[in-house]
Amino acid sequence: MFRTPLFVAATALAASTLFTACETKPATASEAASPTAEALAADSAGTPVTSGTAATAEAEANATPAPDPSSIPAGSIADAATITARPQVPILCYHQIRNWRPKDSKNAKDYIVPEQAFRDQIKMLADSGYHTVLPDQLYAYLTTGAKLPSKPIMLTFDDTDLDQFTVARPTLDKYGFKAVYFIMTVSLGRPNYMSKAQVKQLSDEGNVIGSHTWDHHNVKKYQGQDWVTQIEKPTKTLEEITGKKIKYFAFPFGLWNQQAIPELKKRGFVGAYILAEKRDPIDPLFTIRRIIASGYWSPRTLHNSIVQSF
Ligand SMILES: [Zn+2]
């Protein structure tokens, strides 16, 4: 099941805010669902992906560098209906990548993917022929119809957890995969969270750093100065760390409202990511859907979820 997420790391929000809206059609796949040939092959193969395959995948993914969104003329940008009508690129959202502990709650385990389960999920993606894409590529695809690599997928990591650097990064490197890291800046340098140097390294290595607020407060409740504290200052911090413009935002808990979108645009963002609920028909670029890759999911379940949810 796609459980209603109730867990969030390192935040002290009131319990009433700790929910994420599920979409009406659950983004689920059961183990009993008939698997695709691809998923079966991935599950049964166990064949190591050769460096040659990884290199080819990387070459293909990097073949067409995406333009910076600011370089795309406004007149070339498709209208919202056209953007919404394009096939969605599957986007996965990860949080902690670590083995379960006895005190982890049932709900928390959706957000905590055990190390081997993570490696198995990523291997399945590589074996199934997926190529990771980054937000500028997705932006060019959505706005202008620019070509993407075959079987595109985006991998995103929220909340700054250290294991994203120590566990996920080496796994992605093995397959030439790049990812997006949505950072909440309050955690930088704290125990079990990434340091500024690690965030810079991820950026330098070709991954994308996005903003995920200062301390994970619900965007729907912002007033006045909150926009400075939660959005402006943290984004500036990330720009200082990476030396790059921060263009993309992920809503904490996936919670958004229409009032937030002009506020983000005003502050230079060109896209924002939610979770599995429906996109906004008016501003699909600011409500880009992701599904949480659950810690309970086998590679086959993940594959089925990708196919069914996007
Ligand atoms: Zn988060």
TrEMBL record:
Keyword Acyltransferase recorded: no
One Pfam family it belongs to: Polysacc_deac_1
Localization, UniProt: Secreted
Keyword Signal: yes
SUPFAM superfamilies named among the record's database cross-references: Glycoside hydrolase/deacetylase
Domain NodB homology: 151-310
InterPro entries: Glyco_hydro/deAcase_b/a-brl, NODB_dom, Polysacch_Deacetylase
Biased composition (Low complexity): 53-65
Primary location group: secreted
PROSITE patterns: NODB (PS51677), PROKAR_LIPOPROTEIN (PS51257)
Protein's name in the database: NodB homology domain-containing protein
Signal peptide (residue range): 1-21
